[in-house]
Fold:
Amino acid sequence: MVHTIEVSGLRKRYGDVQAVDGVTFAVEEGEFFGILGPNGAGKTTTLEIIEGLRRADEGDLTVLGLPPWPRNSKLLPRIGVQLQASSFFERLTAREQLRTFGSLYGVPAKKADAMLELVGLDDKADTRVEKLSGGQAQRLSIACALVHDPELVFLDEPTAALDPQARRNLWDVLRSINTDGRTIVLTTHYMDEAEILCDRVAIMDSGRILRLGPPAVLVRGLAAPARISVASGVLAVEDARLLPGADEADDDGVSLTISTRDPSAVVAAMAAKDALTGVQIRGATLEDVFLELTGREYRA
Ligand SMILES: Nc1ncnc2c1ncn2[C@@H]1O[C@H](COP(=O)(O)OP(=O)(O)O)[C@@H](O)[C@H]1O
Ligand SMILES: [Mg+2]
Structure:
C-alpha cells in the first residue's frame, strides 16, 4: 500500500543546528495529521522538505508516491501549500488574488471565486489584501492553497497570531476541507488545536518526534491523574488530602485543586460535604504528555 506521505530517517542541519534529527512517519489518505511542537522544534523545516522546497541532508521520502525533490512538476498540481499572508500580490483585491493564483493552474475564474465562499470571505471579494484583518488574510492564503483543488494540503501554523474567535472560525474551515476528502498536514504550537483537529499528531521537539498517535491515545497512555478544582476555601486543604481517592491537594488562594485517579470517589465525597462550589474537572492533556516526555513545561 502506498502512503500519501512517507518519510524515513529525515535529517537537516543548518550550520551548528540539527533542525531535523531523524524523523520517520507516514500519513494516510484523508488523514488530518498534525505536527505539534514549540518554536524551533523543526516543524517548518520538516514541512518544507516534504513540500519539495528544501532538500534533506539524509533520509527517504515520497509524497503521493513520488519524490518531491528535485521539484516534481507532476506533484505540484496535486499539493496545496499555504503561503504566508505577506506573499500576496500587491494591490490586488481578495478576488483578484484568488483568480491570479488559480490562473497559474488553469483554474477558471468562476471556480476561483467559489473558494471565497468556502473560507467565508465572499463579502470581502472587493477588498484589497492590505485591508484584510489577520484572520481574513490567513483564510485567503488557505483559499489560495486550495484553489486548484489539491488532494494534499500543507498548512504551517495557519492560526498563529489569530484571536480566539478567528481561530475557531478557521478550524471550521479546515474541518470542512478535510471532510471533503483532502489529506491535511498542519503544524501548530497550540496544544488545544492539535487535540481538537487532528486524527493523529506527531509531538516534535529538538528535531525529533517524541510521540505519534491519536491525541486521545497519547493522553490516555499517560494514566495521568484528573484534577478537580473548586473555589478556594470551600474545603480546608488538610481535609481535601484526606478525601477517599485524593492523591494530592493544593490551595493557591483562588482555587483548591485535588489530583486523583478516582475522580468519582472524590466528587462523591465532596458532594457529601457540600463542597462543590465552582467545581471543574480536568483530565490530562497533550500538554501533560509533553511534560512527561521532556520533563519541561510546554512553552510555545
Ligand atoms: N534557514 C535557516 N537557517 C538557519 N537556521 C534555521 C533556518 N531555518 C530554521 N533554522 C533553525 O532550525 C531550527 C528549527 O527551525 P524550524 O524548522 O523553523 O522550527 P519550527 O517551525 O518548529 O519553529 C531552529 O533552531 C531554527 O532556528
Ligand atoms: Mg515554523
User: Anything to note?
Assistant: Residues 225-283 form a domain with the Alpha-Beta Plaits fold (CATH 3.30.70). The chain has a mean pLDDT of 93. The chain has two domains: 3-220, 225-283. Residues 9 and 22 are 4 Å apart (CA to CA).
